[in-house]
Design goal:
Helix content: 40-55%
Shape: globular
Distance between the termini: 49 Å
Largest sheet: 3 strands, mixed
Strand order of the largest sheet: 1-2-3
Number of domains: 1
Order of helices and strands: EHHEEH
Number of strands: 3
Length: 138
């Protein structure tokens, strides 16, 4: 038995990659997706900083949050807010799993509500044109 080993976990939300098929994009329409570069940033951070041990990084869509409360969204025009796509969870955060999950789900629900029907329509168009855009890009 090995003791003292700590595992780091990168937990991406739905990330805008070719792995998401058209049907998946339709299901996700109206909700934002994360960017691959944010997942790369999270993984690089975990590899580069040897002091990080036993942590999880959750990656989602970029949002602007309050400088005082990381679970409070602010408008994109807010000068005091900061833009993030990654949230860190410590091992003891999982002891209060219900509160943590409720806050994360609440945050993503706020994102979806903010995007509204315009975001949904844009995502639907993007979902159906994705194969064509990939084919043209090759």
């Amino acid at each position: 038995m090995v003791t003292g080993v700590r595992v780091n976990i990168v937990c991406p939300y739905f990330i805008d990659t070719p792995l998401i098929p058209v049907a998946g994009r339709v299901v996700l329409a109206g909700g934002a997706t994360g960017k691959p570069e944010d997942v790369i940033d999270a993984a690089t951070r975990m590899m580069a900083d040897t002091r990080i041990a036993g942590r999880s990084l959750f990656i989602g869509p970029k949002v602007k949050i309050s400088a005082d409360n990381e679970f409070q969204l602010v408008p994109q025009t807010d000068k005091m807010g900061r833009e993030v796509a990654m949230w860190e969870a410590f091992a003891d955060d999982f002891e209060v799993n219900e509160v943590f999950n409720r806050r994360m789900v609440g945050l993503f629900n706020q994102i979806e509500a903010t995007r509204g029907w315009i975001g949904w329509a844009g995502d639907m168009i993007s979902a159906f044109t994705y194969p064509l855009r990939v084919w043209i890009g090759k």
